[in-house]
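Tokens for chain A. Residues wanted.
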């Protein structure tokens, strides 16, 4: 589910649910959050590199499990879950490098708001499908993406639920480098290894100085997003979107009650 390897003070985390395009179920949320917590506490780790196995970087939250979560009151959540993963990302004190090897949806895109360096394969695509799922943004993306991309590019990414190509992501500033697929991990690893040669104490100090001014904004955005998500999840638009996914069809929002 999650491969973990260490080399030259770089810990590589590889999301490994290729049959589901590395969609996050509760188990993968737990494993990734715990791996970030462990890397943060490990004095032998200087940098974390996050990538995916197979055709996907991450297809976001597992929608079949999300449907169960929305409709089954007995559903048991994981130890960390989505919130715990975002907590770990917000608090992660060392450089985080992302190598987007394939499709990235939802958290597979919004996680880039926490990346210190993001590399993307030329064939990869990104999408924030929130409006097509009848829900709200997540992971402080409503705050981080406008800062990273500018208001209008961020508005398009968050409102449209349309695919973003690698070249569009590069032009927007969502990623730092676009690579040929065969070169992606090697190039991301090369940069991560260069950073890992620096003193960990200095890397942590630089990242803390850069991110500390953002913490209040991130915390406030998460509160707003969580409130909106809680209001919308399980509502008519969300249930129609999840039912459509489970049935293999396009959602039809035209017959929803007024205001939805």
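Reply:
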């Amino acid at each position: 589910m999650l491969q973990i390897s260490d080399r030259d003070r770089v810990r590589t985390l590889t999301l490994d649910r290729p049959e589901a395009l590395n969609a996050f179920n509760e188990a993968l949320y737990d494993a990734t959050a715990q791996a970030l917590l462990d890397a943060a506490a490990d004095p032998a780790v200087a940098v974390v590199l996050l990538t995916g196995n197979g055709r996907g970087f991450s297809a976001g939250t597992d929608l079949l499990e999300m449907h169960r979560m929305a409709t089954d009151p007995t559903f048991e959540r994981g130890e960390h879950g989505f919130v715990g993963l975002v907590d770990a990302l917000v608090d992660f004190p060392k450089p985080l490098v992302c190598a987007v090897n394939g499709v990235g949806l939802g958290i597979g895109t919004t996680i880039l708001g926490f990346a210190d360096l993001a590399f993307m394969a030329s064939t990869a695509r990104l999408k924030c499908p929130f409006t097509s799922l009848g829900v709200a943004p997540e992971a402080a993306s409503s705050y981080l993406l406008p800062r990273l991309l500018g208001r209008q590019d961020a508005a398009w990414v968050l409102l449209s639920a349309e695919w973003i190509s690698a070249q569009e992501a590069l032009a927007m500033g969502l990623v730092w480098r676009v690579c040929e697929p065969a070169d992606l991990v090697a190039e991301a690893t090369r940069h991560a290894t260069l950073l890992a040669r620096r003193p960990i104490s200095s890397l942590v100090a630089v990242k803390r100085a850069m991110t500390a001014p953002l913490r209040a904004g991130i915390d406030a955005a998460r509160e707003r997003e969580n409130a909106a998500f809680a209001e919308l999840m399980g509502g008519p638009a969300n249930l129609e979107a999840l039912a459509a996914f489970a049935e293999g069809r396009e959602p039809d929002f035209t017959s929803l009650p007024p205001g939805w």
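Residues 215-232 form the longest helix (18 residues). The mean pLDDT is 95.
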